[in-house]
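Reminder to self: tokens first, then the designed residues, so the page reads top to bottom the way the pipeline ran.
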């Protein structure tokens, strides 16, 4: 089950950042809310195939807006993903803390 709330850690150039990722799946469509670095970013353009998920987004930072594509897997409540940006890749790891 992919739908749920996850406590995540994103490894950034400024060190690890903690946050939450709430996911909701319906068929192969994925939506959710990423809360990290003081920002809330709703996502409704994601997709899911089996335990593989992908979504895009944008987050505001002190250095401006950063667009990203997240691709990863969720298995047994554990999230492992990579966020790709123009500045490089950031690893995201998390554990499910609540079912949706």
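Designed residues (100 positions):
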């Amino acid at each position: 089950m992919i739908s749920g709330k996850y406590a995540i850690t994103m490894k950034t150039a400024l060190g690890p950042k903690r946050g939450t990722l709430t996911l909701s799946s319906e068929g192969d469509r994925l939506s959710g809310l990423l809360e990290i670095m003081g920002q809330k970013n709703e996502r409704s353009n994601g997709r899911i195939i089996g335990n593989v998920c992908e979504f895009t987004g944008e987050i505001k930072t002190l250095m401006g807006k950063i667009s990203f594509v997240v691709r990863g897997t969720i298995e047994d409540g554990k999230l492992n993903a990579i966020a790709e940006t123009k500045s490089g890749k950031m690893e995201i790891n998390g554990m499910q803390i609540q079912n949706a």
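The domain at 4-99 is CATH 2.40.128.120 (Lipocalin).
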